[in-house]
Batch of 4 targets.
Target 1
Amino acid sequence: MSKEQELFIERIDERKQSALAKLKLLVYGVQDAPELFIKNTNNFKEEHYAYDNGNWGVDKNRLTPSEVLLPGGIVSKLHVRPESPYRLVEDGDRLFIRDDQSFLSEFRFLERPNFWDYKTSSGNPTKNVGQMYGLNALNFNLYSGCEFHKVGKGCKFCSVMATVNRKNPVDITKDVQDIVDTCKLAIEHDNVDYILITGGSYLDRDYEFERHMQVIKAIRPVLPWNGVIKGNISMMPPKDMTKLKLLYDYGVQNPSFNMEVWSSTNFAKICPGKEEYVGFDHVVASLLYLQGIYGPGEVWSNFVAGLVPLEDIKNGFRFMAEHGIVPGANLYHAEVGSSIGKSLGRIDEQYVLSVFSYAAELYHKYGYKPYFNTRVLRNSLTNEIYEGVL
């Protein structure tokens, strides 16, 4: 991390304004700024389209920043939306977010991870294998694809099949040794506080689980795991829930099966593949089983805020919290190539604030904490509202 970025993070007295700016960025996105992006190409971590695409009207071959850093160490995902009232501008040697009336916040581009400058022992560029979420979360999508989509039952909000193709610098299926090598390089050349392993969506969820375990067993010896790096996995549960004890045995600290939506009716409508091949009831039962192993406040389930009525997502949050499971949410954004695309429109600000305020209320009631911090959780306002800066 550069000295300039460290000083920017230390401006904690501006965190309230930064949190407000993040709210606006996630709800409205920003206008495209090709000249600014081209000028700063060497200064930012580029979007490399390993999973989704929220940049409307942007050629994927043109380098576009993935995230921005706001004063006080708050990171926000960047989505290009042509109709956004907000734009990114340069004023001297400083960068700002503004609309037609006023400046909203200063920002900096997130620096490109150093490990992307290297190749694995097989000669594969590490950018094809792993990415850095926010400032310090090393992420691997074990499968940058979706078999549910291949049988016509993909989640309605997801754009993975339209986003990831042969032209992208991303391996759709990651080699285990490449992942191990990438972990070594990231630890050597970057600051890493979290590791996130995402399985993608396989029809055979037992195979998905075995893939996770294969990777976890391989990378643990090369990582300063428990107590230094927090290990998280995100997948669908296997058929045999007793296998889940292996996650605990191998030191995965906060496993998650993401519900995406609540209730069972909404789940079947919005996530038809997960309903048919996994099942709403099985995901819930598996979360409860894991909670019995890990204890309250250690198991995670994520939702997508904006897909269902407010009371439905609040009901899901409450169920999870009352059963010892930490509910979280990412904010819905229209993705290029998803089946709902722009049809759902922009999420209402008050809805967003209500969702995350309710989550924070439950956190404080049950003694839970957000899993990731504000330097990582780029598409959520969980931390900002939990901390009281929004």
Note: The CA atoms of residues 121 and 181 lie 7 Å apart.
Target 2
Amino acid sequence: MKKIFWRVLIYFGVVLIVFTVFIGLIFTKFNRSNIVGAYKDQLGDLAASVAQRTSEAVKDKEIDTYQNYLGAIEDFCDMQDVDVWVVSNPSGKPAMNEDYTNVDIGSVTVPEETNRILRSAYNGKKKNYSNFDNIYQRTMLHLAVPIRDSQGDVIGAVLVTGPMEMQENTIVQYEKYMLICIVVGLLMATILALYFSRQMVSPIIKIKESALILAAGKYEHKTGIKRKDELGSLAESMDILSDKLVAAEKFREGQEQNRRDFFSNISHELRTPIAVMKGYADTLADGYVSEREKQSEYIERIRSECTGMERLVSDLLILSRMQNPEYKMDMEVLNLIAVAQDAMRGIRILMSEKNLTGDVIYEDACSLIEGDYDRIRQLFTILLQNAVKYSDEGTKITVHVVRSGGKIIASVTDFGSVIPSEEWDDIFEKFYRASNHGEKDGSGLGLVVAKNIVERHGGTIFVTSSKEDGTCFTVEFPETSENIA
């Protein structure tokens, strides 16, 4: 993460530094142009004024008055440390009279660059240049403008030469201040780069640390970052992951506990019949029982225990399939009444052994749901077998099917053993035996299988029990409006 910090710091700092230097250079260039430009305009106005006055004097032939004007101009220029030359155009036709000039350009040695701007002035153009002048031994600005007669012909030129020392000093001072500003700006840019880089990288470091803590198994850890940006969204996602991992861990622990309980319970359930069968088998094998009838009784007892274990294993296999999310059921539109009647017919023989009567009562002959026929029939079979097991002799078992509020509700009612209200939820747990179970056979898995079947069909199951109203298992399924194909 330190690499990211320094990388962000460098990138951010370089951008700020380049921007600061660029702005400084732009403003320095702009200020230099303004200072030099203002001085050029000042000398240009002076040159234009002298050219205009010279042109008027030539036209009006005011020699004496003009000479006084030139004297005043020279005095003014001496105070301003500026030279003003009025020269005649040697190729002008007619040439300007020397009485209107103050310098004989032919008798003076001037730099080639000065001759160039004078020639431009003779051609009617205003030109200027600045450089270090060997004559003045300092940087000078030279500017030449044409002098025209009344017909517009160029008869001469005004050459103004002024020192750039003050302007150069001003520019140097400005550049010093600008340099100070750039240095201060760079310092501030560095501080800001450090601050914003830390602000940007700090959440990333916290998220990385949180990820390592989560990887270590401490799923309850939170990033503690509250930001309204992409990093905040990432931190929020990490916190959501933490919550989900906590929930998954609790679920895993619950599943692990269920697994341990399951193996513990099934070991307990199998231990008793195996011990019984082993005892009877050892007795028969050792020859302690010689009577034919007693031997048959022992063999029958062993067969009964095998049947119980076979039922237990069968229930476990069914329960395992039902709890597998990938288990696919053969879904179709069913009439719940027909399925209940089919299951009722299947247990008539068991009912007759206890002199029980049974009936399926319904209010609407078309009570349709979407489900797996075999599984729904198995559900009713489990509930009816329990009803037969715990009913008093000579009583009635009733299956009642009604439609209500978009649901198909089926209830199986018997009269016999009463389930205490505090056990109504527990009886749907694996291997749970109600206190009214007594010595009756059973694996303790039937109602668990029934509950799983109901839940796989999107329904609910619950029980109520009392001496007056009997024990009633109620199942609710979502209703479907489709017709039977």
Note: The chain has a mean pLDDT of 80.
Target 3
Amino acid sequence: MRSDQEAAASLAIMQSAIQAAQPGGITAKYFEDNGQWEADLRHRFAEMSDLLEHDPLSRIKAIEPFLRELNSRYTTRYATSQHEVACRSIVKVIEETGWWSCEAPSLHTSSREQTNSIANTVSAILRDIQVVGAKRPYSLITKFLYFCFPQTFAIYDQQAAASIWMWSLFAFHEDNDGSSLERFSIDQVSDTSGVGYGAVPEFYRSVWESSPKETQMAAVAAADRLQETLRKNASRAVVGVIDLLDKLLWHANGNPIHLGLARPL
């Protein structure tokens, strides 16, 4: 059961994310400025996902150009020579989940077991990459998985980690043993093994579950409006509530005012 402090902090985040997606807000402006390439990329990922479902033998070959494109677009600086290794690990682990051929769980409505499976998928891919001696591209892997499964995976990056950490300070300031604060600490969440990634979907679930029905509906409506705008250029581009939260976390970079957790003096 969530404490009153956690519920209040989580609801504040959701309300800020919805506001940021309104005309003139930072998320709406982001999609205005980046809509063309975002729409194209999301559309192509959706088409690629269909190919992966129906042609298992082409999976590694099919996903490598997309991983390379994300690496360049987001300047995650992962060595090109190691892309094939990462792709093999992605394909291997996702095949074990069965999500190439059946619908992956929705993060916001997943069971606790499914949420753990989402988190374990990230760490399993990173472990498999490390076994063969390659570097672990933690943030890049979460970005790739997000674009493949936009209703399932949330993106990890340093800005998101800083914002989730700030949320935890408000959500768990009465945590007597400090275990919750440790779980959401920047060091834990940012560990390149992915061992702390579970805190990311846990944060997203808290924000969703702490929001009353009308707020959830407002968030879905805001995401739908952004998706409709992108689909003018690409009919299969997907935008969801995960996007609203992701863009807020990235922009805020741990600033409690931008997150809606505090007011300016």
Note: The radius of gyration is 18 Å.
Target 4
Amino acid sequence: MNFDQIFNAQNTNGIAPEKLAFLKAMAARQSGGNANDMMAALMSASNSAQKQGISFSEPERDMMLEILLKNLSPQEEKKARSMIQMIKQIKK
């Protein structure tokens, strides 16, 4: 998968260079797998970002999810989207 194409397809304008570099590194580490692996990678990335003092806005987090979802099979993507919806509902 060409991550530059993915990032170019997303609206990354206005994202600080250090955040964009972090997102690219995170996306490169997570390839394939399943919904559970993707969620674990997302949690790990979130913890790593916090330790580095990097915080993401909601649109940036949504973009991060979309990038990770592109690495999943259609069936696993559907499963991951269901898990994400449940998490969002719990947070409300």
Note: The mean pLDDT is 78.
